[in-house]
Amino acid sequence: MLINKNTKIGKLLKHHPGALEKIIAINPLFEKLRNPVLRKLMAGRTSIAMAARVGGCSPETFFRALKPLGFVSEHIAEVEPANAAKNPAFAIDPAKVVTMDVRPILAGGEDPLHQIQARVKELRLGEILSIINTFEPSPLIALLGKQGFLTHVNKVGDKHIETFFIKKQ
Fold first, then answer.
1. How many CB atoms lie within 10 A of CB 30?
2. Looking at 5-117, which runs of residues are DSSP E strands?
3. Fewest C-beta in 10 Å: which of 24, 72, 94, 106?
4. CA-CA distance, 111 to 92, in Å (whole number)?
């Protein structure tokens, strides 16, 4: 199977059952894929590039790990992500931040996406949604980016990533 950085993890897992173990071997964070509920919910909307960011590695790491299973990588030119800046593209006023810690939801084996979307709909003009997680939520960043949100990611600690979202005015 020909793969690239945009290939979804779910597609890899459907194509070869051994892909799960290869992906988990890349980073212990991917152990969550053993949970069938989380795997079903997350793998279908997470690309290799997104997973690589979560795992703190490059898509090349995935390509190398999956090659023994018959996956062939197709290289696509890398583009610097829009939110790669160290400083946010918007001011973060603590008084306007609405915080949602999704770590307990994920630890319970559930997908917090519907709760996040409900919270997004409740945001008032100028409010900033802060999502606290153990990893950078690249699929969520892409989804809300399409809905007109600016994003800033702040790594507070190894298991504490805070992602800020504000609607473009």
1. 19
2. 72-73, 97-101
3. 94
4. 27
Question: 2-73: what fold?
Answer: SP0561-like (1.10.3910)
Comparing CA positions, the residue from 15, 27, 16 lying closest to residue 62 is 27
pTM of the model: 0.61
d(Cα 20, Cα 66) in Å, to the nearest integer?
Answer: 10
Note whether 2-73 and 94-167 share their fold: no
Architecture of domain 94-167: 2-Layer Sandwich (3.30)
85-133 pLDDT tens trace:
456 667 788 889 999 999 999 888 888 999 999 999 999 988 999 999 9
42 CB-near residues (< 8 Å, 6+ apart): 9, 32, 33, 111, 139
DSSP string, 66-96: HGGGT-EE--------TT--SS-SS---GGG
**25 touches 14 (CB < 8 A):** no
Q: Is 168 helix (H, G, I), strand (E, B) or coil?
A: coil
What value does the CA radius of gyration of the chain take, rounded to a whole number of Å?
Answer: 16
